[in-house]
Amino acid sequence: RSSDLLPFGKVGHASFLDLSDSYSEKPLNNFSVGKLVRCYVLSTEEKKAHVSLRQSRTNAESNNKIKDIEITCIADVKEGQLLRGYVTSVKKQGIFLRLSATIVGRVQYQHLSDFFMSDYTVCQKYIPEGKLHTTNVLSADRKS
Question: pTM of the entire structure?
Answer without folding.
Answer: 0.82
